[in-house]
Every structure is written in structure tokens, then in C-alpha cells.
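Give me the fold.
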Amino acid sequence: MSEQIEQPLQYISKLFDEHLTNQSCTEFDPSSSFLPLLKDYKNQIISLNEVPVQQVPKNTLVRFRCMIQDTGLGQEMFISAYEKLDPNGNSKLTCYRYTDDPIEAELNTMQNEHLNERSLVYCISPPGENNWAKEAHNVNSDPLIDGINNLEIKAPNQISAKKFPLPNRDHTCSIVKFYNDMAESVKVGQLIEVIGIRGQDMTQQQNDETELDSALDLFSDIPVLHAIAFNNLNAINSYPSLGNVTHQTPQIRAQLIDYISSVLCNDTLVAEFVLLQLLSRVTVKNRGLKIGNFTLNISGFPAHQTTEQDKKTPLLTLYNPASKAFSDVLDTLNVHTVQIPLTIDGLNNTKFTPKSINENLEAGILQLVDGTVVLVDETVLEEGQLVDAGVRNFQALNDVILNQTLTYEFPYSQYQFDTDLNVISLSTSKSMLPNHCSIHLSMNNSNENRVQPSNETLDTFRQFIHSAKYSSYDIPEQVSEYIQTRFVNERKAATESKTELPTQEELMLRMNLARLAAVSFGETSLSAERYDYVINLDKQRRARMAEQSSN
């Protein structure tokens, strides 16, 4: 394994020679020899998420945990192999993949089968990734990494800064060159971990080869990574490491609700709905319809009068102390979180959706990894005039909430891409945003007794949330019949009492809440008792909302 890590190109050359004994060079693919390194020897490989890429020598084996930001950089031709004389004067076919080094021979002839194409994809470090998750990915790291990982990691230029969704945030970026049709299996917004070889920066390549007049001219000094293989980190795989916490489920669940409620005026009912929201995700996609996601609004949240100092805070920074305290708790529980203070200035002057400008896809703040918790703070929204950009941004946020889709804008067309974002909105009164349900915060208690769990307890909370979120689930036939019968009886009773009939939307909400409640209790199938539990929760929520409306 040491040769693979310390001298990757030399090792690839040996694999190539072995491959040629019975196969053509066009079929060469060393990915199966390198992919296991991400599992068994991961911490011996330099991570571009921890080490400034400028500090990594060319032709070093590296890994990069990243989000696919732009797949539209096209392809480039390259020489995959060439003839070279060995020390005995014999001609030998030499591998020329995964490197930008000059060819060590004069190319008098070139066979077509030695010419190939590789895809160029722009990748960025995951937006919204919390510090605890970064540290978890870097457990037992190599001493070399520890010695330099405190250096600042910053985007090289303004072009790359515009390709990162979160304005003014330091991050790592790279143009990843994918071989062997690997790029066909990646899509924008996807979270992956690449293992590959550090190449020359884009400007160096252009100066060494030829003056290019293309969109790639924009990417001066952008690092290049030659991808040998990659792992998909979406869904369950996005968590750094998972342990088995199911045997502690009831205890963890109760402690977790106490922790969340400690920044919500000790309101355990609201905290339970927050927990259910954190466990939600899109479970079914059918002809554009998304099922399973659950958007929550918390109304009655403490208001905050914006000050001149608040207006000077960086974009995407919460300055309502109550919102910030809640956000801090969410940060400790989730791998990826993003905060959006909903202000007139922010709506008018921030880009929410990706847009292609001069053949360069600039990011919007909603171009995020699936599973990201997006906290929208409406408590800071004041009177003002929305310009056209503000209206478009507000509509984009609505589209994510209602349809889990994000529009990508190109010069002559628009495309909608699926998302799976967990949106929680905070408002002082009725929310301006759509939601699956709203619950009013009880202000009867203060936030003075905030719970401060140990790091070990926090890690247990995180594993509990992530495991439950992606656990299997089914509804037994007898329980399905029970739900239908109960719904019919409720409608009959409402008709007889001349009260409002329960709607199909209410049934769908209860079904979704029932799934979330079941997995939160460590159950893999729904029971009639758990469905009744959810109906009781929903009745408490509705009673509180009705009481608030009457005041």
C-alpha cells in the first residue's frame, strides 16, 4: 500500500503494464486498486479539505470531499499512452494518464486509440459543513497534515468565489478531471469523495501547452485533481462514521428533546416537532411529486429590532440572539447547516439560484448538499421594496419548500434540479413562507437553563439523528386499514357535529409525521399506537395555534 500512496504514478504504470498483457490500453481502469484506500488507509492520504492545496506537491495522491458545483466545463482531449524507448532500446507503451508532466519522448506518430477524452468538473468543499464534521473526517490524521492544516484555505480568485454558494466563506475548490466516463455518474449538488492525483494548476497548463481562448481561461490558478476513483457520500454515507445507538433510542430521544427545548423556552412540544423535522427527507419521487420532506415553521419567535451594527454583519449571519442560539444547537447536531436571515437587502442583493454568466455557472446560496438544514429567520424582516431579483429569490425559496426543486438559469434556457433540503423557518407571527405545518412557541419559560451536553453525548445525538433519518420503514396492511377507518370515522363525526372536515392534506401530514415519529422511537414499521401518538401531537399543535389565533 505504501507505493500506491507515496508513488501513485509509478504504481499506476505497473498496473498498466500488467493490463497490457491481455487487454488494450483503452480499457485500462485502476480505480478498483485505489478505491479501497478510502476505506482502509484513508488517514494516510492527504486531504485537500484539511491541507491548503497550494502546499501539496504535484503528482501527490490526495483525497477531496467535495460537492459537484458545475458539470458544464466540457471535455478535453489527452494522450492516454505513448511509445517510449526502454534502456535496451526497445519500444514500450507508456501510460500517460492522471498527470500533466511533459512527455519524455518525441511523438513522431500517434495512434488514434491512444487519444482519449476526459471530463472537467468544478468541485468545491461542502458548503455549510460544520466544524465537528470536518474534525470527524480527519480523525487519526497523518502528522504531516497536522503540521499544516491550520493554514488558511481560501478561494484563489473572484471567479471561484462566485462559484461557492455561501458568500465570503473560505473554501477549497478544484477542477476535477474524470476519466473512463466517470463523469456520467455525477450530477450537480452531489456530495462525493475523490481519490486522485494533484495536477498542475489551470494557468500553468495553459502556459505550458497553448493559449486557450475558452471559458477555461477564467480559472487561473485553480488547482487540478486527476480523479482515479470516487465514493458517493450522499444520504447515509454523508456522516463521517456511524455507530449502533439503537439500544439507547428512548433515552437518547428524551435527552435530545431536552437539549433542543433548552433554547426554545423549554417548550418540549416545539422541540419534538423540530426533532421530527431533522429526521425528514424525500423518500419518494414520482413524476415530479416529492414525498417525505417536512418543512416546519415556528411562529411566536422573539422579535429583534435591527440595529446599524446588525446591518454591518456578513451575509448569512444571524443577529437575532434567540435565532442564533437555536441555530447553534442545529449546528451541533447536523453535518451541514446554512442560515438565511430573510432581510429586504439580502433578498435584493444575494443570489439564491445558480446562473450561468459568460459560460461560467455562478452559484446561488440554495445550491447545497442534500440533507442540509436551512434555517430561515423571518424575525429580522422589515418593511421595504423588493426589486425583481428579490422577488425571484423569494420565489426560489418557495420552490424549494413546495417542490424541492432549484432552478438553474442559462442564457437561453432554465433547468430544474431536484433538491432535498430541510427547511425550518422562524417568525414572530404568521410565516410569509409556505410550510407543511406551523407550531407556535410558548414563551412561558426562559432560555436561562440551557443544556450543555458533553462531546460524547453530542456524538450520540448525531448518530441517532442520522441513523433514524435513513432507516428502513414500512406500514403493515392492518395498520393502513386502521388509518383509513379512523380517517373515515373522523369525517363522519365532523359532518354530524357540523365542524370542519379533516382534509386529505391533513391525512398526508399525519402519515408523514407518523413515519418520522416511528423512526425516532427506533421502530421500523408503523403501529396503530404510534399513529395515535402522532394524532395527539398534532391535536396539541392545532389547539395551541387556535388559541393564538383567538388572542
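The CA atoms of residues 4 and 11 lie 6 Å apart.
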